């Protein structure tokens, strides 16, 4: 569990967090990138950078940052949760573009299971996982 900040990186992170909370995701990204430059091993910075990219509709960049947060602290459940959610949303959106991308569904299920492994009481993850697994089971019977 790194979560270390240098003083300047903490200041950038706090500015980014304030912007994020106000829905100013592009500006938040700039501040989180500055914080990341000074504290590259801080999983909270990568988590919020991923969330900001996700809010901007940039799933690829979000995924990279969520995975970096996971690599920095494999026992930190939040990036697994948000990565699972991001992949599930991308899976749903893949219907509209090119048909179902089943790999996104499978990856999302994997990440939700990881959240439950780390936080067995996480009802949000349990609910999402149940829905995704029901859909997967229904589709495999067709």
SSE blueprint:
Blueprint: H1 7-21, H2 25-38, H3 43-55, H4 59-72, H5 77-98, H6 102-118, H7 123-140
Folded structure, characterized:
The structure is a single chain. This protein has 142 residues and is mostly helical. It folds into two domains: 1-73, Tetratricopeptide repeat domain (Serine Threonine Protein Phosphatase 5, Tetratricopeptide repeat, Alpha Horseshoe), CATH 1.25.40.10; 75-142. It is 80% helix and 0% strand. The protein is built from seven helices and no strands. It has helices at residues 7-21, 25-38, 43-55, 59-72, 77-98, 102-118, 123-140. Helix 3 packs antiparallel against helix 4 (59-72), helix 3 (43-55) runs parallel beside helix 5 (77-98) and helix 5 (77-98) runs antiparallel to helix 6. The N and C termini lie far apart (44 Å). The model has no long low-confidence stretch (mean pLDDT 90).
Low-confidence stretches: none
Structure classification: mainly alpha
CATH class of the largest domain: Mainly Alpha
Count structural domains.
2
N- to C-terminal distance: 44 Å
Order of helices and strands: HHHHHHH
Name its key features.
142 residues; mainly alpha; Serine Threonine Protein Phosphatase 5, Tetratricopeptide repeat; 2 domains; globular
